[in-house]
Input
Amino acid sequence: MEISDGDDRTLRADGLLNGRDLGGLKRSDGTFTPRGVFFRSENVDLLTAAGWQALYDSGIRTVVDLRQRQEREMDNQERPPWVTTVHVDLDGLENTGFWGGFWDNGLVGTALYFLPHLTAMPERAGSTLSAILNAAPGGVLFHCMGGRDRTGIIAMLLLSAVGVEQEAIVHDYMETVRLGDLRAASTNRNSAEAQLNELCVRHGTTTEGAFRAALTSLDLDGFIEAAGLNEKDRATLASWRGSVCCEGS
Output
């Protein structure tokens, strides 16, 4: 099954293991998402000077950081002057009523919390999308810590907005899962992917199944309305910052 244009989408930058271009994925109209518009990755704290140069050479000019404040404070490295960093806390931990059902039981590490989060706090993802869509000219890289779930939510929304085929969206999410051992080794940890899958199994699904269910059940129009995206942001989302024809046009 064809899910991409066949070219490697990896963002090769020293200090990143889970970076890739969201371009090159097949849309329902048979075209492919454009390269160089949106990129996803794990946190950029370990990028070397050569790694930052690779981001620059890829056309990236803005980094949107989805992490909590305490996570961001662990990053003390100086960034090059050409990059703009925008902070948007996607989680919203102050909503203790919501997180009580997903944090301590580990479900925050699975796609089982994606739709509940989008339903309970649509403004969080809406603010994130607005930051990405209104970034300065150039490519936009967005990330959390591991580039798996918070980043996965936003990638799911961006790809769905331009009609990327379901299998291609699933494949993109699962690429991070497939890199689990490598990601863990890079930070001297054991991969948690087996345990996370087992947690999903105990809830009647799998890592992939949980994401597929979230993607299949996503009501993008309903989310956009609940998030309060203005007309400009809606148009910019549907056109990927003017780089594609809007669905249905």
In short: DSSP finds twelve helices and five strands in the chain. The chain has a mean pLDDT of 95. The first strand starts at residue 20 and ends at 21. The radius of gyration is 17 Å.
